[in-house]
Amino acid sequence: MAINDQNIKDLNAIRKLIKQHKKNDSIFAGVGLFVIATLAVALLVLFLDLVIDGYPKMNLDFFSNFPSRKAEGAGILSAWVGSSLVLIVTFFVAVPMGVAAGIYLEEYAKKGWFADLIEINVANLAGVPSIIYGLLALGLFVYEFGLGQSILTAGLTLSLLMLPIVIVSTREAIRAIPVHIREAAYAVGATKWQVTLHHVLQYAMGGVLTGIIIGMARAIGETAPVITIGALTFIAFLPPSPVTDVVPFINFAWLDAGFTVLPIQMFNWISRPEHAFHINAAATGAVIIILTLLMNGIAIKLRYNIRKKIKW
Amino acid sequence: MVKKQEIIKAESKEFNFHYADGTHALKDINIPLYEKRITALIGPSGCGKSTFLRSFNRMHDLYPGNKYAGQIILYPDNTNILDKKVDPIEVRMRISMVFQKPNPFPKSIYENVAYGLRVRGENNKRLLDDKVEEALKGASLWNEVKDRLQDLAYNLSGGQQQRLCIARALATDPEIMLFDEPTSALDPIATVNIEELMSELKKKLTILIVTHNMQQAARISDYTAYMYLGKMIEFDETDIIFTNPSKKETEDYITGKFG
Amino acid sequence: MSKTKSTVSKALAKNIRRNFVERLIEWALMLSGLIAILITFGIVFILVTESIPFFEAVSIKEFLTSTIWTPNFEIKNYGILPLVAGTVTITGIALLVAIPLGTITAVYLSEFASHKLRETVKPILELLVGVPTVVFGYFALLLVTPLLQKIYPDLPTFNMLGPGIVMGIMIVPYIASVAEDAMRAVPMAMREGSYAMGATRFQTAKTVVMPAALSGIIAAYILAISRGIGETMIVAIAAGQQPNFTFNPVESAATITAYIVSVALGDLEHGGIGYQSIFAAGIVLFIMTLSLNILGQWTRKKFTERY
Fold this sequence. Notes:
The structure holds 3 protein chains of 3 kinds. Chain B is α/β, with parallel strands linked by helices. Chain B has helices spanning 49-55, 88-94, 109-119, 125-138, 142-145, 158-170, 188-201, 214-220, 238-243, 248-254; strands spanning 8-18, 24-34, 38-42, 67-74, 79-80, 95-98, 176-180, 206-210, 223-228, 231-237. Helices cover 35% and strands 25% of the residues of chain B. In chain B, the strands form 2 sheets. A 6-stranded mixed sheet of chain B has the order 6-7-8-3-9-10, with helices on both faces. Chain B has a 4-stranded antiparallel sheet with strand order 2-1-4-5, covered by helices on one side. Chain C is mainly α. Chain C is flat and about 85 Å long.
């Protein structure tokens, strides 16, 4: 029975110890929950504040008016049109190039110094501050190429920012496709490009799309590089319409036009001392936030769905 | 069939286990573990032997939704270690485990072995030194590592890492040690080392081992349970299981007609 | 015989054409990949060539050691240190906020939270990483600084504390997300080993999971520092644009990025020294962030190689 007593005494000691240790567990769990809850509340308050401040301006006039020296009548017409046109350029430049580069790196490039070099570059480009891209664009597009402070310049600049995002997401999506799918296609006599186009790219489409949406959302909110290339902050006219009523129904004069974009309009209004302009800024901010959160939300949902659905 | 002088250290009674996805992995298992004996669990993959072993230190509690039913009684204090009121940590402090693949922590050899004691709040350097040495000797690793206790554990070979994990489990003086296919990731020489070590260890404590390797069960264990599809088919002294099993299924498995 | 021969040559011709197209496509794809290298090259080329005239006018020694930056004054001084001081101070404040909060969030999500909570919070973190920084600038200037002024009435409208704190809040989701990924990547076997010894969650997190994920967590910190240094809009809006050699958070100061913005907002005289100076400042910014990024990626790679 001596052994028995010994055991029971030990057990009591152990239980006391566990209780003590578990206290640390509960303390940390409490701290963790508190931190997450505080952050959630803080961010919620910030966003709500933005929406509430901007609410009085949220009407159709705001979207159909030009900016003005009077805060009351000012709107974001030139800004949202400018943002849309710039994004069109960005999309058509960054998507084909990014997807092609992603395909090259995953499917074609042989392991070696060249592939490594591209890879290191892509990884580093993703971390370069956006304002540096602005400087590159200022020196290269605005002056070397003589494109001026135009929609084309802004679109190209933002496509530089978006490129690494598209490349990385394309690669990840392609990498998730197992070898045996490719082997099955090769086995029936497909060429490499046919395998890539008919199979790899098809199955990777969801992942590629995610990257494109996230990249576009980022491009909408980017301010610094567009300021750096010298975008005007006060624009009370619209660029020429991309669509015309004469054959061939499209023109490219808009590419050359001066412009402003939503975040620059917001920045401009924040910098004014009058409170009335701050309301305009809040409303613009709310528009930007809603757009980017919506786009990112769709992308993240898409990604989770893909992860859940596809089991090779 | 069982020699009279044996003392029961632990015993599962009508033990059932359900995984979170609803799989009924263990059905009415009754197996005793005799004190200072080695009990081996054999059976084809997926028969539930690892699930059974992992129940002994409540590993399944780490994953939500898993359900235990029935009892595993630990003697001499008659604790049902599956009882909701019993803290899994308390169970794990009494019953330690060695895993299939060596899983040392990213720490020094010394800190790996001392981990269990540190978890128990022990910080006395002198005592830790003694215990680490004792455990490493117990795991026949001391001579190989005594000059480099501060080396990262990853620098050891696979067999050495597994003995380190045994030392880690040993340092806290457990009442029972669980081995989940401890040699399946090791080469034959390392395997022999570990088997010899287990025979040495059973002088001090009770051992439950899961093994894929029937020869291993025959070589080292005193008792063997044959499991199939979540049921315990037969339990007896190892010699009897391997020479004269009473069930046809056991015989088929042992002789290689099945499995 | 002749019939078989002609089908063979037809097939051959088809093969040649097909191979040609295949090669063409490969080249086109490779050119796209090459763009990544060209962009990096372009950045270095533009930064260097545009700032060469600047360094002809201003010695590198003055640029790196002078503590006065007054490009708009009568007597022009070009010492980058005030801008670096502003950058370092604001980033420092941001890290003081972001590292503890981000790490606690990551540990909680990875080791403590229920599956459901984690699956809810993780996407929200990813969502927050995408919020445009101009919006955070609005918060810093019009919300947080006025709030701080209630506690500390002497705080000027433009200061480093407010934007620093907001930048910290902005970086928290980034650190939390990357560090949580690193901790999740630690194999379950390692945790089981710890729990099997009778360790609690906190003990396991502190003594096993965090050390195992350390290089991944540190990579998250390093990449966060780089983000802070490169962040532009928050500081351009809320920290002021006066270059001021100070580390005092309650003073106003300009960062490297804020200086570039302030020059770009004015009338750029192409080829003037003001224009050139933003490229010189850009070089410093690029070197700082590039070295941090390389360090961060190297650390992360070391981590992923292990698991």
